[in-house]
Amino acid sequence: MATNPTNELGIATLSLGNWREHKLEPRLQAAARAGFKVIDLFDECWSAYLAEHNLNGEGAAAWEATPEKLAVARKLCALVKSLGMRIACTQPLRVIEGILDPEERRRTLDSVAARFPFMRAFDTDLVFMCASIRRDAGVAPADLKRVARDLAELGDMAAAYSGADGGRMLKIGYEGLSWAARNNTWSSSWEVVRFANRPNVGLVVDAFNVLAVEFADPYNPAEHGRIFPTLQESIKVLAGSMAALVAIVPGDKIFFFQCGDAERMNPATFIAPTDPDVPALLPWSRSHRLYPMEQSRGGYMPVELVAAAVVATGYKGPISLEVFSHTLNQAGGNVPDDHARRGIDSLHAVVDTIQRLPAFWKGPAELKSAVDCVMQRLEKTESTSGQRTSHI
Description:
This protein has helices at 24-34, 43-52, 67-82, 102-113, 116-122, 144-165, 186-196, 207-214, 231-248, 282-287, 303-312, 334-356, 364-382, and strands at residues 9-12, 38-42, 86-93, 126-130, 171-175, 201-206, 254-259, 261-262, 289-290, 319-321. It has 392 residues and is α/β, with parallel strands linked by helices. InterPro entries: IolE/XylAMocC-like, Xyl_isomerase-like_sf, Xyl_isomerase-like_TIM-brl.
């Protein structure tokens, strides 16, 4: 059986309700009532919180380290702690690595460093970026050495800041995004982190993004939502990949783990975008994610294989929820509480499931047993007639 995880349970602020409809404080209160201990602070939520305090939080202005904005950051930190939680990280940094123009590259890396004073004010040590989605001639996301150099320089900048103020080491996380231009798998993202070779640069694993690349195809005309034709093959291939993660990645080099599932779509009505500038997976990711193991709502992916593998590496950090869904955009004071309750129930289900899952990374017998266990759970979803498209 998998090890018994003791990881704290967390949730992204954007997964408690959209910032346009729901102020941050009620969302945090809902998370605390549900029992969460960790908050993943989204940029958009921080910007909206600044606006509530009559301060400019648009774009780069959100990270101008004025006394007024740092005071608001400390106020937010105090609020979160008063609710029995902590801010584990801020995110997401986008389009950071692989920039070719030297001046643009310098400005971009400096924009990351601009966050460091706020990280102190939030009392967090982690900020992370997702792999770049830019495909124009101004970036080289496929240049492994260039991307690794960028991450290494960011790690050095964070270390220099930490050394200067005497605080705990600030860390840079790197996440493979399922529709990124190059580093869209956990293994390619790990390559970059390994090549960066800095103790304060690590991997961020997002179960949804792993599954979106290695398991799912929401547009498959066969209507099962997978890459491979059979459920058994799909689970076995994914389990092999996750066994490799356990073997290759040290737990202390995983800086954060996010968990999420998604709806199985009806390809007759869910059409891939025709705009070449819109990644195919983007509409599914932004509007149809679910909390893990929500089979009754159309969730169909083997989230437990990713979660069990991450915990098996020795990872000690939070298991956190990152879910985007159209339901989060709805108005109404019940939205944060409803989603917080759904979220905490889902994470408890994940923790319970991985405790009982055979340790598939240990050998062929355990692998077969784990595949059988996951198949037994997911076959119920496979047999459901009719596809869910937008009625979560």
